[in-house]
Amino acid sequence: MSTETVAGAAELRAFLHGLPGVDQVGVEERAARLAARSIKTSAKAQAIDAAIAMVDLTTLEGADTPGKVRALCAKALRPDPDDPAVPRPAAVCVYSDLVGVAVEALKGSGVKVASVATSFPSGRAPLAAKLADTRAAVEAGADEIDMVIDRGAFLAGDYAKVFDEIAAVKEACGDAHLKVILETGELATYDNVRRASWLAMRAGADFIKTSTGKVSPAATLPVTLVMLEAVRDFHAATGRRVGVKPAGGIRTTKDAIRYLVLVNETAGLDWLTPEWFRIGASSLLNDLLMQRRKLADGVYQGPDYFTVD
């Protein structure tokens, strides 16, 4: 390792460990207080449509098939077949080998195609393999790449390795946006979540994302609050805006609205758009559609009314 590289790694470590510590009790109390807020019916209708437009409709199973991906894309194009006014989700997220299927199905719709990459969900692979995975997804037409960090390297304090991998993947993305998955359920402390958030942003992340959805706990309100504070403070310090994506375990309209309140009260109104806030989910969309229909006509449709994701 060169002297310059050693100096850079030392500076990065000093910066990350110089970040203010997170008040665990304060963060959890604030998240709980914001989660308890109620909103009026008119605001709820707007919040539901906003949440639908922020969903990354996701299928990341070993049994995924081209047919399943096409069906998910059809759901994204027309979430409620009886109501063309329903917004479309922001993106459909699939494994890299199925990107071409999604690109073809969503052509011209405005719905983005996102692909997980970099040895998802473990992140344990040589950098060359991670970059090849990323490039393959981008060449197939992915608009967005969701990468996972090497949590082992991060927890061992090898921040420079994590930084360099994110920067290399960002370069491999070309024009595609990069979402960096921290897998917060494995980071153990809120201090680590804050450090990982700043590390990812300094390395070039366009979004920071809580989870793969494969580890419990996945997204939580307190963890997302810490990440929102990080993007707010990063923007104040650098002028560059970075998005946030909680993913995993967000299944109900009530859950989704709690996250929207959290965004508004922490990062601010500017982040309340699909450009800067996403929700990674598979089953959430149906509950949003059911609640939307109930607000519109007073009738609560059962889950069988909508297609199974």
Automatic annotation (TrEMBL):
CDD domains for the chain: DeoC
Keywords: Lyase, Schiff base
EC annotation from Swiss-Prot or TrEMBL: 4.1.2.4
Keyword Repeat: no
Reactions catalysed: 2-deoxy-D-ribose 5-phosphate = D-glyceraldehyde 3-phosphate + acetaldehyde
Pathway(s) of this molecule: Carbohydrate degradation; 2-deoxy-D-ribose 1-phosphate degradation; D-glyceraldehyde 3-phosphate and acetaldehyde from 2-deoxy-alpha-D-ribose 1-phosphate: step 2/2
Chain segments annotated as transmembrane: none
Pfam families, sorted: DeoC
Statement: the UniProt record of this protein carries the keyword Thylakoid: no
UniProt enzyme class: lyase
GO cellular component, one term: cytoplasm
MF-aspect GO terms: deoxyribose-phosphate aldolase activity
Domain of life: Bacteria
GO biological process, one term: deoxyribonucleotide catabolic process
PANTHER family in the cross-refs: DEOXYRIBOSE-PHOSPHATE ALDOLASE
Protein family: Belongs to the DeoC/FbaB aldolase family. DeoC type 2 subfamily.
Protein name per UniProt: Deoxyribose-phosphate aldolase
Organism: Actinomadura rubrobrunea
Gene: deoC
